[in-house]
Amino acid sequence: MPVKGKERWEDWFDAGEKLLWQGAPKSGIIHWLRNIFFSLFGLPFLTVGLFTAASGVGHLASMTVGDLAFGVFLAAFSVPFIGAGGAMVFGPWIADHYVPRRTKYALTNKAGYVATRYWTRSMDVFPIRAETRIELTEHRSGASTVNFHFEETRDSDGDQTTVKKGFSDIEDGATVYRLIRDIQAEKGAGPQ
Fold first, then answer.
1. Which letter does DSSP use for residue 146 in this model?
2. In what order do the strands lie in the sheet with 103-108?
3. Scanning 19, 88, 148, 161, which has its CA 20 to 30 A from the CA of 10?
C-alpha cells in the first residue's frame, strides 16, 4: 500500500498510466443507521451468551461432578453467542473507525486501485473500459460510493448475487464518477 516515503502509487502502474485521483474512505462514523440496526440485532445474542456464560461459571463453582460438567458445557455453549453478538454489536462501529486508516484508493487513466492493509497487504486493480458499468451512490452522511466492478455469482439454488467493488464512502464521489466517465469517453463509450 502506498505510504509516504516508502512506496508510491506509480510503483504499481503499467507503462503510460498516470494518476488522476487518490483518496480514502471518509473517516468517522458514517453508517449510523446500519450500525444501530446491527447493534440492536446483535444485542440479544450477546445478552444470551453472557447470561449462559454466567450460569456456566455459577455451576463451575459447585463441587459436584454433574454441576462441573454442566458448567463447562454452558460456558462452551455461550462462546459462539458471545462472539456473534459482540461482532454485531461492536463490529460495525470498529470497522467505521479502522477501514479509513487501512484502505487507500487511486484512479488512473486505465484502472481503479484499491489498496488495503490489515493482517496482510492487498492491491485490487479493476480496469476501466468503455463498457465498464459504473454506479454512484450518495449517502446521507455526505460520503459517496462509486462502484465500477460487479461480480455476478449463482449459488446452488440458482439465486444470483452481485458483489459490487469500487471506492466506498469517499467525499468527492461525483468528481470521481465524472473522471471515470471521461476515461470511458476517451475509450469510445456511448452514453450510459
1. E
2. 19-23, 103-108, 111-117, 121-127
3. 148
pLDDT at 18: 92
Ranges of beta strands (E only) in the chain are 19-23, 103-108, 111-117, 121-127, 135-138, 144-154, 160-170
Examine the pLDDT at 191 and tell me if it is beyond 60.
Answer: no
Gap between the terminal Cα atoms of the chain: 32
- Residue with C-alpha cell 464521489? 173
- Match 510503483 to its residue by C-alpha cell: 11
Q: Give the neighbor-by-neighbor strand order of the sheet with 135-138.
A: 135-138, 144-154, 160-170
Q: How far is CA 164 from CA 131, 133, 137, 161, 185, in A?
A: 16, 11, 12, 10, 22
Query: Which burial class, exposed, middle or buried, applies to 131 when counting CB atoms under 10 A from its CB (0-12, 13-18, 19+)?
Result: exposed
Residue with cell 458445557: 73
Answer left, alpha or beta for residue 28, where phi above 0 means left and psi between -120 and 50 means alpha. Answer: left
CA-based nearest residue to 133, from 154, 164, 110: 164
